Amino acid sequence: MNDNTVKPNKYDVQQPGDHTSKGRFIAVDNPTYEAYAKKYQAKTPISKALYILFYLLPGIVAYLLVNIEPVHRFLSSTPGLEGYNFQYYMFVIFTLFWHMAFPVFMLRKHEKLKWKEVFEFLSLNRFSFKEVFLVAPIAFALSVALSLPYMMTLYEPFQKWLSSVPGLQIPSYSIFASYEAFYGAPAIVMILMLIGNFVGEEIYFRGYLMKKTAFLGRYNWIVNSILFCAYHLWQVPQTWPLIVPFIFFGLTMQLRKNLYTMIAFHLLFNIAGVQIYHILLGLGAGTH
Description:
mainly alpha
């Protein structure tokens, strides 16, 4: 084990579910999480700027490949990528490889962590049925309730304004232009897209980057939430107006420090959130 490796026994690591009594019903203490964040956060000005850029970079690339029509037309003209196929495959590549394989590669090759330590770093070592089936639903319900004043007053004006800004509209040929287009992918591709969406984004944004930007201190969770929202450049009118609900992504991770909680929260947000905001309240919110 090299000098950069976090030694679990040094930090009095607790087992899943064995949190300290202080704040156990809202915020949990996770010495392993804090140890990795402290040791492996970006420290130089260049690395700090780089990891902030990493939040937005996949969204910038996706915007260039999909929303810039000549680029999209050129790439999708490749045999076998006609129609929506190019976007389906691109979505899989981004969410499975960029969001999942890249953090693992960096932790293994750059930080020289062992596989067990990679799982610890990404907060994947603390599976808990309580977190998935109780905490995540409660966190989601609270996020909806606390977001309602904003959603009922400012969401639609903000969405309409964004839709009128040149360059921010969702192209008619985008798979995000309609639910039918997005969910029209072949079954196996759809499964990979959903895994990449709920699991991949959480591994990348909450499991990996949130520790790398721990230098932001008390503001880390809110910066994480805002940049996660901003990263969705290819579907701005759908996602940027959801900035207030998005705040609860970083907040929930800050409080619970468990990636399984976030995966369940993300799943509920995308599925149940659509039902609540779009169907029940008629707000036309769509998230992917």
